[in-house]
Amino acid sequence: MTIQVGDKIPAKTLATMTKEGPKPITTDDIFKGKKVVLFAVPGAFTPGCSNTHMPGYVVHVDAIKAKGVDTVACIAVNDAFVMGAWGQNQNAEHLLMLADGSADFTKTLGLELDLTGAGLGVRSKRYSMIVEDGTVKALNVEPDGAGIAVSTAEKILEQL
Ligand code: BEZ
């Protein structure tokens, strides 16, 4: 089952990189009482994610927050070291970089993408969502899983 608009984000623990190293961060920490834009990518440092998807959010993060969004977060099935390094590489200091290393959160959402054939293992579909106090208000999943059409920062700005 794939998560739908109106559903609650499941209670899970993710990880984020800090100056002291990787730290756990719960979905309550991220979503409770907040308006959050979350976007997911199939892989940190992959060309589409680095050259197109992520840069849109880096460019538009202030405009997104100006529409009342507290947090813009990026998630991938990668570890916190990789997500931290990718965030630095992308100048994404205004984004919250989230690691779902074992795909537990992603699988619970029903948004996993099997890239085993490409040598990447199980990853996340590319998607974006608007979440208010833990409830999904808008959800944009790329129809083919990895394309970059409906989950861009520009589309989210139109939905806010
Ligand atoms: C990308 O470049 O975005 C990409 C590469 C491999 C698998 C999925 C996505």
Features of the shown structure:
Glutaredoxin, five-stranded mixed sheet, 160 residues, globular, alpha/beta, binds benzoic acid
Quick summary of this structure?
The protein has 160 residues and is an alpha/beta fold. The protein has helices at residues 27-31, 47-65, 80-89, 104-109, 153-159, and strands at residues 13-18, 21-26, 35-40, 71-76, 96-99, 112-115, 121-124, 127-132, 135-141. It has one domain (13-44, 64-159): 3-Layer(aba) Sandwich (Glutaredoxin), CATH 3.40.30.10.
Write the layout of secondary structure elements.
Blueprint: E1 13-18, E2 21-26, H1 27-31, E3 35-40, H2 47-65, E4 71-76, H3 80-89, E5 96-99, H4 104-109, E6 112-115, E7 121-124, E8 127-132, E9 135-141, H5 153-159
Parallel strand pairs: 3-4, 4-5
Antiparallel strand pairs: 1-2, 3-8, 6-7, 8-9
Bound molecules: benzoic acid.
Benzoic acid binds at residues 42-43, 46-49, 115, 118, 120, 146.
Describe this structure in words.
The protein is of the alpha/beta class. The chain has one domain (13-44, 64-159): Glutaredoxin (3-Layer(aba) Sandwich), CATH 3.40.30.10. It has five helices and nine strands. It has helices at 27-31, 47-65, 80-89, 104-109, 153-159; strands at 13-18, 21-26, 35-40, 71-76, 96-99, 112-115, 121-124, 127-132, 135-141. The chain has a five-stranded mixed sheet. It has a two-stranded antiparallel sheet with strand order 1-2. A two-stranded antiparallel ribbon has the order 6-7. A hairpin with a 2-residue loop joins strand 1 and strand 2 (21-26). Helix 2 packs parallel to helix 5. It is globular. The chain starts with 12 loop residues before the first strand and ends with a helix. The mean pLDDT is 98. Benzoic acid (BEZ) binds at residues 42-43, 46-49, 115, 118, 120, 146. The site of benzoic acid has 10 residues, from helix 2.
